[in-house]
Amino acid sequence: MSETKEILPITIYLNQKIVFDLLAVIDDGFSQVTKLNISNQEGKKNGVDGSAEIGISNAFGLFGVKSKINARKEKTQTESSSKSEEKVHTPTSLFVKLLSYLEEKNLVKDINNKSDLINLKSGEFVRFNSTLEQNPLVSLLESLEQIGVMAIRFESESKKKSKAQKENQNILKQIKGMRESLTQHDMIDLISTIKTSHETIKAVLPVYIDFFFNRSMNEIIDGNYTVVGKVVKVVLDQTDSINLFRNTGFKLFKQNALEEMFTSFNDQVDEQLELPEIITRINEPALLVIPIAIYS
Predict the structure, then answer these.
(1) Of 74, 66, 67, whose CA–CA distance to 39 is shortest?
(2) Start-to-end Cα distance in the chain
(3) Residue 66: CB partners within 8 Å, gap ≥ 6?
(4) Where are any strands of DSSP class E within the chain?
(5) Tally of CB atoms within 10 A around 140
(6) Rounded to the nearest 10 degrees, how much is the dihedral formed by the CA atoms of 221, 3, 98, 90?
(7) 9-35 per-residue burial string, b: 16 or more CB within 10 A, e: under 16
(8) What is the domain partition of the chain in residue ranges?
(9) Scanning 141, 157, 172, 268, which has its CA 20 to 30 A from the CA of 232?
(10) Pairing of strands 47-54, 65-72
(11) Residue 89: left (phi > 0), alpha (psi -120 to 50), or beta?
(12) InterPro entries in the record, alphabetically (predicted)?
C-alpha cells in the first residue's frame, strides 16, 4: 500500500508553485472542473454556456483554480431539475494527487540507507524520513541577535549611554547584517539527518520562508518529518561536499579561512552559552534536494 493511502499528510512546508507546475505538465494544462451544473430536463431546448478562470491564492489556502458552467435555459412548459456541485482543492490535496501519480509511475525513490544513493541521479524524485535543523550559523546569529537586543534594552534604561552600549549596538548591526546575508531572498538551508542502522545520511534542503505554514519554521524543530523533493546533487566521494555558503558572499572564502574565523568567534563568546557546532560543508554521504513538501 502506498504511503499516500496510509496517511493523511499535514504539510509544514509546501512549495505550491512546483506542485501546480508539475500537475499542469502531467494534465497538459489545468483541466479540472471544480463546479458542475447537471440539468435533467424533459423539453424542447436546453443550452449551456461554459467559462473558466484560474487564480492562485496563498500557499495554504483554497486552491484557486475554478471552472464555471453557466446554464442558459429557454422557456418550456415542462418541469426541470438542476443539481449543482462544487469541489475545491487545497494545495495539500493537490500535492497528494501529485505524489500518487509519481508513485503509480514508480518515479519516487525512498532513501533508507547509503546503498540507495549509488544509482541515484540528479533530477529524480526522492522521499525520506528525517530530523531537520537550520543552518547552525544562522541559528547562532539569530540567537545572538535576540540576546543583543535584550542586552541593549536593559542598558537603555540608564539615562547615560555608555561607550560599551554604543559598541554593543555596532556589534548587533554586524550580527544582523551577517544573518541577513545568509538568508537572502528569504531562502535558507535546512539540514536533514537520515538515520539508518549503520550510518547517517545528510540532505541539504534550500527552502523559502514563504512556503512554510504561517511563515514559521518553529514546528520543524525536534520532530521527525517526511520530505519529498527532487535531487540536484549526490555526494558519495570524499573529495566532494555541499557548501552551506554557496548562495552567500562567504562562498569566496577558502575552507580553512572559514574554519579559523568561526573558531575564533566561538572562543570570544561567553562560556555560559551553549553554542551549536558551526559547519561550513556537508560531506558524503549527502544529497542536495529541492524540497516539494515537508509533512508529518
Answers:
(1) 74
(2) 18
(3) 34, 35, 52, 53, 54, 55
(4) 11-14, 35-41, 47-54, 65-72, 80-86, 108-110, 125-134, 187-195, 200-208, 224-235, 241-243, 281-283, 286-295
(5) 22
(6) -60
(7) bebbbbbbebbbebbeeeeeeeeeebe
(8) 34-88, 109-134+186-295
(9) 141
(10) antiparallel
(11) beta
(12) DUF6414 (IPR045633)
Q: 141 and 181 in contact (C-beta within 8 Å)?
A: no
CA 149 remoteness from chain centre? 29
Compute the CA torsion angle 142, 143, 147, 148 (nearest 10 deg): -30
CA distance 244 to 204: 8
Grid look-up 555608555 returns 162
How many helices (H) and strands (E) the chain has is answered by 6, 13
pTM of the model: 0.74
CB atoms within 10 A of CB 94: 19
The winner for highest mean pLDDT among 2-11, 78-87, 214-223 is 214-223
pLDDT in tens, 65-86: 543 334 444 445 555 556 666 6
Distance CA 281, CA 256 (A): 11
Sign, CA torsion 54/58/59/63: negative
Q: Which residues of 265-293 are buried (b: 16+ CB within 10 A; e: fewer)?
A: eeeeeeeeeeeeebbbbbebbbbbbebbb
Backbone CA torsion sign across 167, 168, 169, 173:
positive
Total residue count of the chain as it appears in this document: 296
Distance CA 76, CA 140 (A): 75
Rounded to 5 degrees, φ, ψ at 35 are: -135, 125
Taking 3-state DSSP, the helix, strand and coil percentages for the chain, each rounded to the nearest 5, stand at 35, 30, 35
pLDDT of residue 162: 66
CB proximity list for 160: less than 8 A, separation 6 or greater: none
Residue reference for cell 526522492? 126
